[in-house]
Amino acid sequence: MGDLHMGVEADAINDSSSDNHSKRVDIYPLSCYYFGSKEAIVFKDETLFDRINRMKSNYAAYGLRTSVEAVILVELFKHPHLLLLQVRNSFFKLPGGRLRPGESDIDGLNRKLSRKLSASEDGNETEWQVGECLGMWWRHDFETLMYPYLPSNAKKPKECTKVFLVRLPESQKFIVPKNLKLLAVPLRQVHENHKTYGPIISGVPQLLSKFTINIVDI
């Protein structure tokens, strides 16, 4: 095994063994995983104006929109890579999506991962190891930008996106809708690359800075 240390403070040596384990992320070679395809997901073909109007309508009906997204890592060329979905050969997304009213974060993320990354939507063959929440992003109003903080004067935020670490087992199948691409992108490539990946994805390497990334040789 080879350890790749990412910003772990020196006093971490004094942590308990269980805490050390929780701060470690074991990642396995991309070659350990099987990738296939299934029926396409239907996406709404809408303009930005349409999307904002839909957000306003949903907010009036259900209140704050909450989304959950997964940070999933694999190893390629001895470096950690982040699994991203590419939509319409255009923009990138972390796997996940919007919660249903009353749905818990963990249940919702399991449902979304099963829908987009499993052979069947119920995902009975997949057990997702959803871990800690790495960070939260907020849409203060119906504007397009999201921020990693909620100021005290933002009394009624419109959207919250929670990012969770999801640990992979040594082997797993990923069955992806035909109109999505699942790509492994180097962490160093997404780091602060807001223009290509947006603020949430480009901030993932910083969110992972408290962990030790342990590359497992198979």
Automatic annotation (TrEMBL):
<comment type="function">
    <text>Component of the cleavage factor Im (CFIm) complex that plays a key role in pre-mRNA 3'-processing. Involved in association with CPSF6 or CPSF7 in pre-MRNA 3'-end poly(A) site cleavage and poly(A) addition. NUDT21/CPSF5 binds to cleavage and polyadenylation RNA substrates. The homodimer mediates simultaneous sequence-specific recognition of two 5'-UGUA-3' elements within the pre-mRNA. Binds to, but does not hydrolyze mono- and di-adenosine nucleotides. May have a role in mRNA export.</text>
</comment>
<dbReference type="GO" id="GO:0005849">
    <property type="term" value="C:mRNA cleavage factor complex"/>
</dbReference>
<dbReference type="InterPro" id="IPR016706">
    <property type="entry name" value="Cleav_polyA_spec_factor_su5"/>
</dbReference>
<keyword id="KW-0507">mRNA processing</keyword>
<comment type="similarity">
    <text>Belongs to the Nudix hydrolase family. CPSF5 subfamily.</text>
</comment>
<dbReference type="InterPro" id="IPR015797">
    <property type="entry name" value="NUDIX_hydrolase-like_dom_sf"/>
</dbReference>
<protein>
    <recommendedName>
        <fullName>Pre-mRNA cleavage factor Im 25 kDa subunit</fullName>
    </recommendedName>
</protein>
<dbReference type="Pfam" id="PF13869">
    <property type="entry name" value="NUDIX_2"/>
</dbReference>
<comment type="subunit">
    <text>Homodimer. Component of the cleavage factor Im (CFIm) complex.</text>
</comment>
<keyword id="KW-0539">Nucleus</keyword>
<dbReference type="GO" id="GO:0006397">
    <property type="term" value="P:mRNA processing"/>
</dbReference>
<keyword id="KW-0694">RNA-binding</keyword>
<dbReference type="GO" id="GO:0031124">
    <property type="term" value="P:mRNA 3'-end processing"/>
</dbReference>
<dbReference type="GO" id="GO:0035925">
    <property type="term" value="F:mRNA 3'-UTR AU-rich region binding"/>
</dbReference>
